Amino acid sequence: MRFDVVTLFPDMITAAASYGVTGRAIEREIVSLSVWNPRDYTHDKHKTVDDRPYGGGPGMVMKYQPLHEAVNKAKQSGNDKAKVVYLSPQGIPITQALLSDACNVSQLILVAGRYEGVDERFVKKDCDEEWSIGDYVISGGELAALIVIDAITRLLPGVLGHEESAQQDSHMNGLLDYPHFTRPEQLDGGSVPDILLGGNHAQIGTWRMKQALGRTWQRRPDLLKNKNLSAEQNYLLQQFKSEVE
Ligand code: 9D3
Fold it and tell me: Is 38 a pocket residue for ligand 1 (Cβ < 6 Å)?
């Protein structure tokens, strides 16, 4: 899969993506990452990428032409099946399901805005979709593009090891994770639950399922609404509830 990011801060993208899972996927050529700076596609001597908003008001707006040419260069560098996504607070909120779907695209061109945003004609004419990372304000689209690249890369075949891949489609999917512990056994912050020290893997599995259900119920009840729990899961959750009350 190929990622192209249109951004005024290309180093932000290449630097962050060079670490960890994404860095390894790039090294191993499971994904490729290219960056395109709209400033390189200006034609005036001041390399102007922004201008004042029609109608007045605060802030600046990214001009159409440099964005248009940068996206076209990104398109020319791939096949002709690119999907162009503009990252903005007005976009549809990304979910794991939306990102799973995006795995099947051979080239994803992500456009990161700065200032108040981009000329709306660029969104309408040059972009296929508009995505948001959630209901909070960040300063530009770069961190959003990095989140999308990271989340999609993890889903591609061969990127994660066997252990991590198995965890990804575990039976606890759609629930929050259970609590984790490692050495030492005793800390000022408390001790490790006895069940985890006993080595009975059936009991450990049941305990973890109960914790995952309980925490999801406490912290993210919205996630349980869209989930069909098994008879055993319902029993474990009732048990959890009776123990907190
Ligand atoms: C304070 C400026 N806001 C006026 C109401 C508008 C605004 C413009 C540009 C708010 C944020 C941004 C920059 N944000 C992004 O580029 C962005 C973003 C976000 O802020 N939240 C959630 N997802 C995304 S994706 C890109």
Answer: no
